[in-house]
Amino acid sequence: MTPDQPPFRDPWSPRAARVDDLLGRLTPDEKTALLHQYAPAVERLGVAAFRTGQEALHGVAWMGPATVFPQAVGLGATWNEDLVRRIGEAVSTEVRAMRTRDDRVGLNVWAPTVNLLRHPWWGRNEEGYAEDPELTSAIAVAYTRGLRGDHPDFWRTAPVLKHWLAHNNESARDTTSSSVRPRVLHEYDLRAFRAAVEAGAVAGVMPAYNLVNGRPNHVSPYLREHLRTWTDRDLLVCSDAGAPSNLVDSEAYHATHEEATAASLRAGVDSFTDHGTDPSLTVARIRGALERGLIDEDDIDTAVRRQLSVRFALGEFDPGLDPYADISHEDGWDTPGHRALAQEAAEQAVVLLKNDGLLPLAPGRRIAVAGLLADACKLDWYSGTLIHRSTPLDGIRERFGADHVTFAEGADRVRLRATGSGGWVTVPGPGTPEDGRTAARGAEGALDPALLAGRTDLPPLTAGASEADAAELALIDWGGGILTLRAPDGRYLSVAEDGYVRAAADQPGGWVVQETFRLEEHRGGHLLLHLGTGRHVSVAADGLKVADRGERFEVVITERGEEAVARAAADADVVVVVAGNDPHINGRETEDRDTLALPDQQDRLWRAAHAANPRTVLALTSAYPYAVADAHAALPALLWTAHGGQAAGTALARILAGDVSPAGRLPQTWYAADTDLPGLLDYDIIGGRQTYLYFDGAPLYAFGHGLSYTSFDHDDLVVDPPGAHGTTVRARVTVTNTGPHASDEVVQLYVREAAPRQDRPHRRLVGHARVRLDAGASRTVELTVETAALGHYDVAHGAWTVPAGTYVFEAAASSADIRCSVPVAVEGSTPRPRSVVKDGLSAADYDEQTGTAIVDRTKSSGDAVTPLHGSGELLFNGCDFGEGVATVSVEVAGEGSVEISLAGAGAGAVAFVDVPPTGGGPYAYTTLHADAPLTGVADLRVTLGGSVRLARIGFAG
Questions:
Q1: Whole-model pTM?
Q2: Tell me: the pLDDT tens digits for 212-231?
Q3: With the C-alpha atoms ordered 475, 477, 481, 487, is the resulting torsion angle positive or negative?
Q4: How far apart are the C-alpha atoms of 395 and 367, rounded to whole Å?
Q5: Is 240 a catalytic residue?
Q6: Angstrom distance (rounded) from CA 177 to CA 295
Q7: CB within 10 Å: which end of the chain, N or C, has fewer?
Q8: Is 467 in a helix, a strand, or coil?
Q9: Which residues contact 293 (CB under 8 A, 6 or more apart)?
């Protein structure tokens, strides 16, 4: 350190001391300004501007061309941590490389998403890794380690996990509350975050928009009570976009923005993502909270310290020592290694669902490729712009030879006639765009692609042509009557801010999709509703545009898609139908699905192909599962892959040809029908019987399912009990490739309690390994399991426990395909009854419930329980009343009743407490008493009536 160099510039001083030195040099106004996402520079100290939040879920997003890897759910389907770690390394290397040419590219990356895929209707299913916390944790640890880098002091990028906590619905996502009982909280939702944080490769988390147990995640005490206890690092908590304002504007949880901002800051939010690039409102709210005494300077210092700690780790203040500072654009972006890795990932993500021997395809066959996604390489909201592009059709033509391949997309071909004028809709030639633009929307990069405007430089459609000049449009129904219309030149009909309809979009996309329509029957014709604006298409003098009153159109179908598919199928030796979703339509951020069904138009296509040629393969390319029981019953082969990124088509073709044996495994259950699912907002996986852990029915395809072109035996499972290795269990199983092809196999290790004393999972994953075996080869796979992973959260005593007993370890090919098992005696705790006389009962610590929801006891902490529809029940097992109690007390708010009765043998009412209106709002609790003669150990049933909120039950002699 030179004499004029401040200590925070001294690279040899302890980092914490450097952070404190810089913090002490900042003025109060400078510190306050740093709390916004777009932290300004502090020029007098030579501190640069800083932005939190670079999207990097499966490649660098929103900043223009970058390597695009498979969607996150596809990475989960690889079950391969080594691969995912290497992808994390590639993505973070491209972040560094792209930053050398564009300093808008940030090093604080908002990835990965670790929300568990609890319910397949969730619109953002594509962003998660798995429905299982063990698999999700393993993949998340791998990806974050890759993003972070392996240097002990400096980070290549600083990952932030999304979205804390229990977030699986887009419908009313900022106002709905996830009711999460303590067992689900500790055994399921928290586990998805904990392992990655404890692994030391996570810089922070982002709270989700939703509420949990009645309290918004952005003011949740769980950030302090759980998250920050898992590590000694100063984790940076970044709000989701607009969420701080939601606390007042949509949620009305706090009366003023000053109160909301103060509550968020005290709860642990360190960086406020609100109002885009304008920090002024956030700064004003923080200053207002200070003036009102709602926060103090220490609260601000704590948040700023956490941000500065991340910035020091990223090498901002040590450019000469940062080992990642020298990554150049030429050496770190779109490298041959990254291209090869994208293809490897896409290949490993393919799951073979069924195969009756049709695959792999024999050489020399004539192949008909069909389907609405056959010539598509779809991107999602968190994708970068493609540098390279391979569709299934491209890949199959390249692999099998273009002269062996025919193609029928299967879109309906239609013409539109405006009945008012009699003119036919035509698409004018594009001419030369006024700005000379030819690149796809978003190719230039945008910090907020939601702000990208549609094109207005092209002429709008007209409706004055004769039938001979009418445009033949490709109509695709993506489900639920949501349509896209594509012009003959391949561009989609879209509506820009001036309201005109143009053939202007390369693909549907944008925060509000402007390329979707709906046909509405009207007086013998159809109105064309534009969904993005909610207005109908009309005919104006200068072209088609949206208006309050629409034109009536006659829709003339010139060819049904299934007819074209049937013709192609009949003339081929084998058919490959590629079906699935567009990630911007019917299931995406802000929009959940309402069915597992394949859209009708695509359902008709595979049926038409199969009727014409029974040698039909259905390749599903989608962000989520489908219920395709009919296809499974009828077709000889089915595959699934998530949208596979830039090499998707090449990968699928190599799988079909047998160049690569498929070894992807499903990361979530594929249910047979919508009736197998509880409501989307039912977050109680135990009571709702959700995921493979608790689902009691027969799935279409089980969690972990996936076939191969070869076969494997699993033998000689040996499990050493915990006593042999301290706090771990070691399992060894011999895997043999008994088939004709070299292939990967995913060894899955599950455990279940032989005789559970309460509702426990059917089995749960505790380890896995993806291994490569040549034909005839064997390998012994060893997996280590922490003994604590055998346990569960004991609501009776508020602690994690491993009960003594017999545990069955199972080596499996999926959660429904157990190959061998071994019982193991485990020493552990002995179940104890609840000490209700001493401790009472927290209402949320029930064993079972019916018709209730957990709500917030106060705005800052605690839980209560309320009936959902005027009546609900709670069950508390094993309540020990000792030598006897005489009275019961209930801590309640609201109005209604609390009835306490014995459950099981000797059932009957014990006490009834009428709760008159307590007044003062939902947090005005009072304690009421009633006689309740109870003795010994018994199960207690509590029935809630009205709108009462029960926080606690006490007992006294």
A1: 0.97
A2: 999 999 999 999 999 999 99
A3: negative
A4: 12
A5: yes
A6: 27
A7: C
A8: helix
A9: none
> What does the block give as tokens for 449?
């692609």
Residue whose structure tokens are 């509703």: 529
**Residue at token pair 């969420």:** 243
Catalytic residue, chosen from 240, 794, 847, 939, is: 240
Q: Is 436 helix (H, G, I), strand (E, B) or coil?
A: coil
What are the φ/ψ torsions at residue 27 (nearest 5 degrees)? -75, 160
Residue 822 is encoded by which pair of tokens? 């071994």
Q: Can you name the residues that pair with 889 across neighbouring β-strands?
A: 929, 954
Only one residue has tokens 């088939």, namely: 739
By the 10 Å C-beta count (0-12 exposed, 13-18 middle, 19+ buried), 734 is classed as: middle
Task: Residue 71: name the closest of 660, 622, 625, 744 by CA.
Answer: 622
Tell me which residue has tokens 């830039």: 646
Closest CA to 794 of 179, 133, 182: 182
Count of C-beta atoms within a 10 Å radius of residue 533: 15
249's CB contacts (< 8 A; 6+ apart) are: none
- pLDDT tens readout for residues 667-707: 999 999 999 999 999 999 999 999 999 999 999 999 999 99
**Cβ neighbours of residue 650 closer than 8 Å, sequence gap 6 or more:** 343, 346, 390, 394, 395, 398, 399
Whole-angstrom distance, CA of residue 676 vs CA of residue 477 = 26
User: Which whole number is the average pLDDT over 579-600?
Assistant: 97
Q: Give the DSSP H/E element, type plus range, for residue 457.
A: none
CA–CA distance, 510 with 512 (Å, rounded to integer): 5
Q: Kindly report the CA angle at 782 between 776 and 787, in degrees rounded to 5?
A: 150
On whether the CB atoms of residues 894 and 853 are closer than 8 A, the answer is no
How far apart CA 117 and CA 131 sit, in angstroms, is 4
Q: Which two tokens stand for residue 782?
A: 């060893």
The residue among 631, 708, 620, 619 whose CA lies nearest residue 664 is 708
Short-list 202, 203, 238, CA closest to 218: 238
Question: Band of the pLDDT at 721, cuts 50, 70, 90?
Answer: confident
Torsion angles phi and psi, residue 525, rounded to 5 = -135, -150
The answer to whether 514 and 505 are in contact (CB under 8 A) is yes
Sign of CA dihedral 835, 841, 842, 843: positive
Query: By C-alpha distance, which of 208, 237, 199, 207 is closest to 85?
Result: 199
Note whether 36 and 282 are within 8 A (CB): yes
CB-CB contact of 904 with 866 (8 Å)? no
- Name the token pair of 804: 């003594």
CB atoms near residue 266 (< 10 Å): 19
Question: Among residues 798, 941, 956, which one has the least CA distance to residue 888?
Answer: 956
705 phi, psi to nearest 5 deg: -70, 145
Cβ-contact 271, 205 below 8 angstroms? no
Taken as a whole, the chain contains a residue count of 957
